[in-house]
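# step 3/5: fold
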Amino acid sequence: MIIKGIAKGDKDLRHFTFDDNDVVVRGGVYYYNVNYGKNPLEGEYGDEESGYVECSKVIPLGGKKPKPIPGKSEAVETPVQKVQTVQTPEPEPKKRGRKPKVEKEEPSSEVRTDVYVPSRYEYTVTEIKASNITELQNQLNENGLNGWELCGFDTNKTLFGSIHIVAIFKRKRG
């Protein structure tokens, strides 16, 4: 019977067909004579590629299984002592899809002291006009002494005019 198959360990994952009656023995190892078909790169005039694959490394595809290899010794059954087995229930297979909704528990009325509460800030936006860098530096230092921290700014400097900066400052409340 002609069966489709693939060889274990074949890096290219090439499919082939083989006849389970066409078995070759070399050095006590059984091989199937396999046909990989024509190479698509060679076109319709290419030759069919064939070779030999060890029978134990053939994975049959399509549900058909090769018949047992004639002459190959089957596993000899050895007497086994009967052991009483306890059947355990098999776990249910995981279901696909979304997990079922679980209703959330209402938070308790207890106050937790180990939770980090972020500080509250107050912000101010000011326009700073300065004619030189040292004047600008002095105005920023003055705001810093009052507890304000510069957290953002946008500049607008004309070619011959003074420096105009819209600055955003923040400080902790309280």
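# step 4/5: annotate
The chain is about 5% helix and 40% strand.
# step 5/5: archive (pending)
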